[in-house]
Write a structure and sequence with these properties.
Length: about 450
């Protein structure tokens, strides 16, 4: 575990009063470390977790050569004998259903009706789809008798799925550090795996601070606003697959703040607070973070979200030992290094932006996920955007397809850092880089989408 001082010494020109977004990423990458405990989970519980072990395929998928179509299977060598505008006639000898092998021998001029997924009978390599043949039935029984296919409709080997084509035995199927998406769960299931070894879920505690913050159910009063940050943070953390510990609203009161931090640090790997990190008089949050931990206070060249506090809060070991501790492996737990704290600004949009830009990648690293930055879309701006070089700006935006199929983007109204409505109307954040100046209509800009499709 590195101290903040040691991390700072590794970074060129580190200045807490003037951080760029890139400085913040570089700092956080050194501050956080992955959890070290694993959980072996049944597939249904593993969605959204991170794989702690490579998965090597224990079998061939598919296990046999099989048909990709409903049609007729035959030996494709016979196609070589068909004249350019001729046709091939084959006698239908039987039917191969999915799930059981068709037993029998075929001679030249014969074929087997075959269903999608059925094992290819020995010696047969080609399937002609049923819609490409002319079928002859027995006049009295109605039984399929023969098919005729024109030259060129299929080639040898067509419509056959090869054994192991999806995954061959012994080949790497999934890698440690991959997030378990729906497709990866399906892949694991296709290998017959009932459980997967995952890193244990990250535990993240969060609370809002401020005397003016009302909890839901409180009666409105002058000068007070309902707490929205706990709900956005809850949503962001839950979507990320974290275990959340909601600690409510904490007053601008040192003893209450102290007990909230101590409790949070005793239970969680990370603590997220909102409010109280700017220079306001009642901002006791900063003082308490200083008292209980090793915390840096930054001014970040960004908008929204300039102030942010980051570091570690240490807790009383007696609280820590009361934690739930049913784990499958007993390497030293990363939480003995204290809980990482992210002190976010109070403004609701600043909270979401700093979370998406900085906290999310840091938490993914703590979850043991291989860092894969979300792909940025490039879209044409539908409007003029004023932007001062010298800070990174995040604007709430809506990305859509223009009639010509290209991506276009517009902002979603007032960009005030407290205006959550324009955030709720957005599907992404337009990211205007540090050195970027004004944007003209039609200029290509980068957009960070809020989330993936699955
Ligand atoms: P602060 O950083 O504590 O000075 O807060 C900045 C602004 O964000 C103030 O207008 C606060 O009222 C507002 N704010 C702080 N926390 C919350 C919250 N949990 N929900 C909604 N607004 C908040
Ligand atoms: Mg406040």
């Amino acid at each position: 575990m590195k101290t903040l001082e040691q991390i700072a010494a590794n970074l060129q020109g580190y200045d807490p009063q003037s951080m760029t977004a890139a400085d913040v990423h570089a700092f956080l990458a050194q501050l956080v470390s992955p959890v070290r405990e694993t959980r072996e989970l049944p597939l249904f519980d593993a969605l959204g977790r991170v794989l702690a072990q490579d998965v090597v395929s224990p079998l061939d998928v598919p296990p046999h050569d099989n048909s990709a179509m409903d049609g007729y299977a035959f030996d494709g060598r016979q196609l070589a004998t068909v004249a350019a505008n001729g046709s091939l006639t084959l006698q239908v000898l039987g039917t191969a259903f999915a799930g059981k092998a068709w037993q029998g021998q075929l001679a030249r001029g014969q074929c087997v009706k075959i269903m999608t997924g059925a094992i290819m009978p020995d010696g047969l390599d080609t399937v002609v789809p049923q819609e490409l043949v002319t079928l002859q039935r027995d006049a009295t029984t109605g039984k399929e008798q023969s098919i005729q296919l024109a030259a060129g409709v299929v080639h040898p080997g067509d419509n056959r799925r090869l054994r192991g084509e999806d995954l061959a035995l012994g080949r790497s199927a999934l890698q440690k550090g991959e997030l378990l998406t729906p497709a990866r769960l399906g892949l694991a299931a296709s290998l017959g795996l009932k459980q997967l070894m995952t890193w244990r879920a990250l535990r993240v505690a969060y609370f809002s601070t401020g005397d003016e913050i009302l909890s839901l159910g409180d009666a409105p009063r002058e000068g007070a606003v309902y707490d929205s940050n706990r709900y956005t943070i809850f949503g962001l953390l839950t979507r990320l697959g974290c275990e959340v510990i909601d600690m409510g609203v904490v007053r601008d009161d040192p003893p209450q703040l102290e007990s909230a931090f101590v409790q949070a640090a005793g239970q969680a790997d990370a603590i997220i607070t909102s409010g109280g990190v700017s220079v306001g008089e009642a901002d006791y949050t900063k003082a308490m973070m200083k008292k209980l931990g090793d915390v840096a206070f930054w001014r970040i060249a960004m908008r929204p979200g300039r102030p942010m506090a980051v570091g570690r809060i240490f807790c009383d070991k007696s609280v820590a030992s009361a934690r739930e501790s049913s784990v499958d492996s007993y390497e030293q737990d990363s939480s003995s290094e204290g809980a990482v704290v992210f002190g976010l600004p109070g403004n609701p949009v600043a909270v979401m932006v700093t979370f998406l830009a900085f906290v999310r990648p840091a938490l993914l690293q703590m979850m043991g996920a291989r860092a894969t930055p979300a792909p940025m879309l490039q879209a044409h701006s539908l409007e003029v955007i004023r932007k001062k070089p010298g800070r990174t700006e995040y604007q709430r935006a809506w990305v859509s397809n223009a009639p010509n199929g290209q991506l276009q983007v517009r902002t979603t109204g007032s960009q005030g850092s407290g205006v959550l409505r324009s955030m709720a109307e957005a599907n992404g954040l337009l990211v205007l880089a540090h050195d970027q100046g004004n944007i003209a209509v039609g200029d290509v800009v980068s957009v960070m989408m809020f989330e993936g499709v699955v």
